[in-house]
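3.2 Worked example (two chains)
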Amino acid sequence: MVLGLDISEVNISLFRLVNDLGKEHPFLNPVFSFIAEYMVFLLALSVLFIWFTRDTDNRIMILCASIAFICAFTIGKVAGAFHSNYQPFVELGEVNKLIHKEKDNSFPSDHTILFFSYCISFWLFKRGWSILWVLLAVLVGVSRIWVGVHYPFDVLAGVLISLAVSTFIYLTFPKLKVIQTTIKIYEKCENMLLYRFKRKENKSKNF
């Protein structure tokens, strides 16, 4: 019981440390609010762009990253059934709450799971400069604390779940025949559609 209390106190202290920075440096609040709410659109556009490069290795990476996210998100929901806490702005006073958020279970952070599932996968497959994706995921995790909607342990749990799942998927799934087959079937269908589209386009030009 004492240990549980200590962990809770550490969680709150770390939250205050980050969240209070918004009060000390208010000029940064719009930046972190944007990252916390809208960076997800950048991730979505990036996933689509990488997929439509039509590179098979890139598509295997996106497919594995998506599987990692689905698995990590599911594990997160199971973890949330065993442990739950409301957002800091619900449980604590004088929270620097910068974005709208409904009252619900904030453990673990879904945003963190989403970003780390994809960004860790990108780095595992590509390495090198792909570490910037991981740094972006870290920034998103910090932003969720900064704007007052998650505790540090909500974010940390999301990181650990995503890291474990993404690594497991990376080490096992690309070697599975079903992954290769799925990509080949998709690319075959895509090529057929492109061929039909080009034929229609050529016919319309001839007329």
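3.2.1 Second chain
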Amino acid sequence: MKKKYLLSGLLALFSPLALAHPGHIGTHGFESGFIHPLTGIDHLSVMLGVGMLAALFGGQARYRLPLAFVAIMIVGGMMGVSGLVMPGVEIGIALSVVAMGILLCSGARLSEKATLALVMGFALFHGMAHGMEMPLDSQAMYYFSGFVLATTMLHMFGIFLVQLAVSCMKNRVILNAVGFGIGMSMTVFGGSLLFS
């Protein structure tokens, strides 16, 4: 049960100095879309966190959470491109970082259905942010494909990290400490985004 805490802690390895949307490589095409989720600690931490939560729940949730995130993120991306964006997208993203930190600190104790609903909400805001960055030209589909692929890979990497941690670390005290530390760092970082 305590194995659920470990790899949430690995997110602490990423510097909180990274900003939400630093300069991306170029403004068009697949590479720019692929880099977008990787260049902000907010996007990176939530997308890794979704994979981690999926691994902690196990079973069908291992596929359900990442697939739901990607599907709703695509919807949010289309909303962002079309200009149909809910107010407070950046606040929603910051809140998703805080909520993900809390979920990882708690070791996925919330019900799977409630977690799925939260993950879908996170995905909508992250998708809108990606969509607002998307070029409105012939490169749009390449950009779109890039950020969907990067997101999927981050989910898969989050699942892998948890599985690796569980196989390597059996000491529950260490697992709890690492998981709590990473969850707290995400919560603090998300809070700093909210008040910056």
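3.3 Remarks
Helices lie at 29-35, 41-57, 61-82, 89-105, 112-133, 140-168, 172-194.
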